[in-house]
Amino acid sequence: MDRFRSAPPGIRVARAIAGRNFRVGKGLILVITFIAYACYHASRKPPSIVKSVLDPETGSSNPNINAIDSIAAIAVAGNASAVQEIAIARPLSWLFVPRDASNAARLQSRAAGWAPFNEEGGKSRLGQIDVAFLACYALGMFFAGHLGDRLDLRIFLTMGMVGSGTFVCLFGLGYWWNIHSLYYFLFVQMIAGLFQATGWPSVVAIVGNWCGKSKRGLIMGVWNAHTSVGNIVGSLVGAAVLPFGWGWSFLLPGLLIMVGGVMVYLFLVVDPRDVDLPSPYDGGGGESSSVQGSSDEEEEDEAGSSSSSSLVSDRDDQDPEAQVRKNSSPGRDQPVGFLEAWVIPGVAPFAFCLFFSKLVAYTFLYWLPFYVRHTRIAGVVLSDTTAANLSILFDIGGVFGGVLAGHLSDKLNARAITAATFTYCAIPALFFYHEFGAISMPLNAGLMLALGMLVNGPYALITTAVSADLGTHSSLSGDARALSTVTAIIDGCGSAGAAVGPLLTGYISEQGWDNVFLMLMASAFMAGLLLSRLVVNEAAEKIRGLREAGKDSSSRASSSGDLSQPFINGKG
Questions:
Q1: Where is this region: Disordered (predicted)?
Q2: Residues of the chain by 3-state class (helix, strand, coil), percent to 5
Q3: CATH superfamily of 11-67+112-279+336-539
Q4: Higher confidence at residue 176 or residue 547?
Q5: Confidence of residue 276 (pLDDT cuts 50, 70, 90)
């Protein structure tokens, strides 16, 4: 591995905390990368939080929605005492209320939405800003891993976080700058998408440098909770300040990820060898003293790699495991080509499966608060803030789904079977949520939790454990450069689906949400169907293993009988 990295400025603090303890050092890195990517997801959440404010009534299935749930709307209604009460209850509200809050005409405009999103076709425009972000995110993913291989990942990740935060803030500043140009919001979202693409390849590569292969599905399933935690934080923060103006729902998450970038710059250690700690892949060092043993890890990974393949980021050339394999590979400097990577067993099925899985997951990420806001639950229309807070249950379910999917795939040693089972179960969950979620609040909450678990479970599994398994597939012949190519292919396909889902929803929802849920159910079905061949192979392998185990038991019993028979005959 090229030693082109410098130790972070906060390394003295890290050493004081961790000392020479590899486990403590690894724990710190897991926490830092967890927080970093949670910040990425928190900064992606604001567009979904403010949708119902930007376009409060256009195309709504509930035209009688009461829009007076903000300070601005209360002021327009002429209720000065209510504004005064809010100011007393929230001492810092003067920071959030626009200086021209007395301008009734402008406040009325805000209460009725924000041009150009509150005009005819407003939901389609909201879908366009989503796809602008996600398309650039998908495109950037194909390049981010390769750039990360050639740059210091600590600096690369810091630049990505600060850049992302800057453009998230610029979107929110359109509120105070009174910007109503669709092109401004599209441009800001496109650049933000490119910066956001730096996150996943970087954190997965860094975690790969520190973590071995033992219980990969469970460990990465727990660590992958940063996605849902970030969504929850973004929802809570965005919803909390939404009554003061939708711009704050962007500004605070944007500042949060920038602060996270400073944390990464000061404390992140890309590789344990940068701080004179042994790598878990060096043999006898690192994790070998703190986990059960390398032989168990090898067996687990060998079995897992036969059943998985996936995306996401890049453990790239930074993957120390790939570096170890490179040392014994005669052609280790030759990277695998783009077309060659496609024929690696499992790449294509999981890549296309992730396309449809992320299509469903990101549709909920960007549109769930809007859907809840425009749906009467037990006959009640929720406010923007309440709808945003309720939607976090989907992400809470996603945390449990990711952990459960990872644990089951480890126990069963069957990544494809686990992912396909979750995906197929998501189809009836989508139907039940749409048909019965409006009956009562508790039922809506329960169905949303279950839906989040079933939708995010396979998505989390594919983007973590499956991806790591495929990146170490035996057909790679020890070529470390194949890892970045393979993961870019899978994550790029998944991110393309993430761009398509919210865009289609913006158009289809104009005709009614029944059609949107039909699209989501069809997508979930396609995701499971694309894994059929891998599921059949895994099932056949399991059946073959059971038969062989049965034959071994029979042969041992027969052998035992043969040994005991002479004694029996002798007694006769």
A1: 279-331, 547-572
A2: 75, 0, 25
A3: MFS general substrate transporter like domains (1.20.1250.20)
A4: 176
A5: confident
CA distance 326 to 328: 5
For residues 371 and 364, what is the distance between their CA atoms, to the nearest angstrom? Answer: 9
pLDDT tens, 477-509?
544 445 556 667 777 888 889 889 988 988 898
pTM: 0.71
Tell me the domain boundaries of the chain: 11-67+112-279+336-539, 68-109
The confidence band for 39, taking pLDDT boundaries of 50, 70 and 90, is very high
Q: Taking a C-beta distance cutoff of 8 angstroms, is the pair 45, 230 a contact? A: yes
Which one-letter DSSP state was computed for residue 243? G
Helix spans in 331-476 (H) = 338-342, 347-373, 384-390, 392-412, 415-436, 441-461, 467-471
> Do residues 252 and 173 touch, judged by C-beta distance below 8 A?
no
d(CA 175, CA 110): 10
**Residues 542, 403: Cα–Cα separation, whole Å:** 23
Cβ neighbours of 513 (radius 10 Å): 16
Helical spans, DSSP H, in 92-177:
93-96, 104-111, 122-150, 153-176
